[in-house]
């Protein structure tokens, strides 16, 4: 039997096998370690990417929250002719607007700082930077067509951030600019006369942007709107239901041309109260507005109650304004009674005596207290001065608006002579003040004070129409002035005058009110001319379609009662019928003449 014996392998071969086995084990362990490290690194990278993305999102959200009260100016849309010459035209215009807004905010800051107690003004700006938050924000997200910037805009809009957008275009020799914010579109235009239609024309655009900045800031911020509204630079309250509505109410009451001395006294008591001062404490803007509003209210006391500094009470003066007229304007010559016409007979130079009307004096008023005479320029003089005067500057326009408001306040409080002086001053400050011209014309044809001059009124009202022909009541008063200058027999036919037709075309819904104003004025002239029956009939016609418990109704029924004493039978009964049918004012308002209406004696 043969026994098989396994021979040991050669020593070198066994060593190589052992070495290979150890090497394979080391490689396997290394691969396992690398796999472990790779998983850990990838996990770390995924965590880093997640944290990074989260930080980016948090940053965008933070910026969106921080800019929630801001407005950002976006590049404007411009015509291709401009973009061909100026590739960045839209961004240039946006930067110019942003600069205008920042300058306007800086003006507010400097103004409030001068009245700040601690010189630390806490006014928040609303104009933000238009630069993107992230680099590469215009990169599109894969397979979506949505850019990172779109995502940023969406998130920011959720938190209330708003954008100012706009466009520029040309048409029929004019350059137009439209700016949009919060759904509001503000249009501006300038003539291109002498300008290259293919150029950017930044001088015209900058001028329009400068004009837009107060409106934009008023819409963008309630506090900015309050500042501009109370200073008279903004006409409208854009945030009537906001947190500062009470402060808007103070300024609205002060700016009302219907304010009486008693109402002014109540406003001053409110402004001086501890509660209002506590509300303004710690807020530089409100403290500045309170001081400004209080100062303006005290200025009004000089007009309505000059003794307020002594009595500390503003009350109506029981004595009506009295004055001595040193120079009375002549009435224009009327056409002979036989000559009837549908149009008024306009006077020529022969209607006035050369020594009765000068170019420097329309009227000289001396109060009963023998104060110095006040000389006022005639309408002709005002027109001549305006023909040679440069356009009013912004500060002159503001001063003119304030003066015109004081004049209307004086007239509504039975101070026609002082009002006349103020209207003339408002025109001298700004010849383009359409309301000063128009109200001057209305005052000159007023029947109550001894100032009536239909011809001078026509000049003032015609100039107001030349400034702005789109105001219905101005056109209607021009029609009334022409009717008052016409012969009695043709006076009522002037309701078909082009001015009356223009007024009703501008505001068809107000036709009844405009007709009422016309016939009330006609009735006043019939009364002054002794045509009592025709006056009574016209008063009734004026109130036939519009009877409200207002001052017009009060005045008309008082005149009808007076006509009864002049022998017009049934005039007072008609007055009582009108009063019985008169409706309350809409919105729960109460007329200042309600006390007279309630006291009118009717069976």
UniProtKB/TrEMBL annotation:
TPR repeat windows: 516-549
Source species, domain of life: Bacteria
InterPro entries: TPR-like_helical_dom_sf, TPR_rpt
Keywords per UniProt: Membrane, TPR repeat, Transmembrane, Transmembrane helix
Chain ranges passing through the membrane: 44-65
Protein name per the record: Tetratricopeptide repeat-containing protein
Organism classification: Bacteria, Pseudomonadati, Pseudomonadota, Gammaproteobacteria, Thiotrichales
């Amino acid at each position: 039997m043969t026994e098989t014996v396994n021979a040991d392998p050669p020593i070198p071969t066994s060593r190589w096998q052992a070495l290979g086995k150890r090497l394979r084990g080391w490689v396997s362990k290394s691969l396992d370690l690398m796999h472990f490290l790779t998983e850990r690194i990838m996990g770390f990278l995924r965590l880093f990417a997640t944290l990074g993305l989260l930080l980016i999102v948090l940053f965008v959200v933070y910026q969106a929250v921080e800019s929630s009260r801001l407005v950002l100016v976006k590049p404007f849309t411009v015509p291709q002719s401009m973009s061909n010459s100026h590739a960045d035209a839209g961004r240039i215009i946006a930067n110019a607007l942003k600069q205008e807004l920042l300058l306007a905010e800086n003006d507010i800051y400097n103004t409030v700082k001068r009245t700040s107690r601690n010189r630390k003004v806490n006014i928040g700006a609303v104009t933000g930077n238009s630069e993107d938050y992230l680099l590469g924000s215009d990169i599109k997200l894969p397979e979506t067509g949505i850019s990172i910037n779109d995502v940023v805009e969406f998130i920011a809009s959720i938190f209330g951030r708003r954008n100012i957008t706009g466009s520029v275009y040309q048409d029929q020799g004019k350059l137009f600019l439209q700016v949009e914010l919060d759904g509001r579109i503000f249009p501006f235009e300038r003539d291109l006369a002498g300008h290259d239609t293919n150029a950017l024309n930044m001088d015209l655009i900058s001028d329009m942007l400068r004009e837009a900045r107060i409106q934009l800031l008023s819409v963008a911020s309630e506090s900015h709107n309050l500042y501009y509204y109370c200073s008279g630079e903004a006409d409208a309250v854009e945030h009537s239901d906001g947190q500062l509505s009470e402060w808007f109410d103070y300024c609205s009451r002060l700016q009302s041309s219907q304010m009486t001395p008693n109402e002014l006294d109540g406003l001053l008591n409110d402004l001086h109260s501890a509660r209002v001062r506590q509300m303004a404490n710690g807020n530089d803007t409100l403290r500045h507005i309170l001081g400004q509003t209080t100062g303006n209210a005290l200025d009004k006391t000089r007009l309505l109650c000059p003794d307020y500094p002594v009595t500390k009470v503003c009350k109506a003066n029981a004595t009506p304004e009295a004055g001595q007229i040193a120079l009375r304007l002549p009435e224009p010559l009327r056409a002979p009674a036989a000559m009837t016409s549908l149009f008024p007979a306009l006077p020529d130079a022969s209607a006035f005596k050369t020594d009765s009307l000068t170019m420097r004096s329309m009227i000289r008023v001396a109060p009963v207290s023998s104060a110095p005479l006040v000389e006022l320029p005639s309408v002709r003089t005002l027109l001549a001065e305006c023909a040679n005067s440069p356009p009013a500057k912004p500060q002159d326009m503001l001063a003119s608006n304030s003066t015109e408001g004081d004049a209307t306040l004086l007239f509504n409080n039975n101070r026609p002579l002082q009002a006349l002086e103020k209207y003339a001053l408002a025109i001298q400050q700004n010849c383009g003040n359409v309301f000063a011209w128009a109200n001057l014309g209305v005052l000159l044809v007023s029947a109550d004070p001894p100032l009536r001059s239909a011809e001078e009124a026509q000049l003032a009202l015609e100039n107001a129409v030349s400034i702005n022909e789109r105001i219905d009541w101005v056109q209607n008063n021009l029609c009334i002035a022409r009717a008052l200058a016409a012969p009695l027999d043709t006076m009522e036919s002037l309701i078909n005058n082009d001015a009356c037709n223009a007024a009703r075309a501008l505001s068809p819904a107000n036709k009844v009110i405009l007709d009422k104003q016309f016939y009330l004025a006609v009735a006043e002239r019939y009364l002054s001319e002794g045509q009592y029956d025709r006056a009574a009939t016209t008063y009734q016609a004026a109130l036939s379609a519009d009877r409200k418990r207002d001052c017009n109704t009060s005045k008309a029924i008082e005149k009808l009662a007076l006509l009864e004493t002049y022998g017009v039978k049934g005039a007072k009964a008609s007055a009582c019928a009108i009063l019985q049918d008169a409706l309350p004012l809409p919105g729960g308002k109460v007329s200042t003449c309600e006390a007279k209406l309630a006291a009118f004696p009717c069976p």
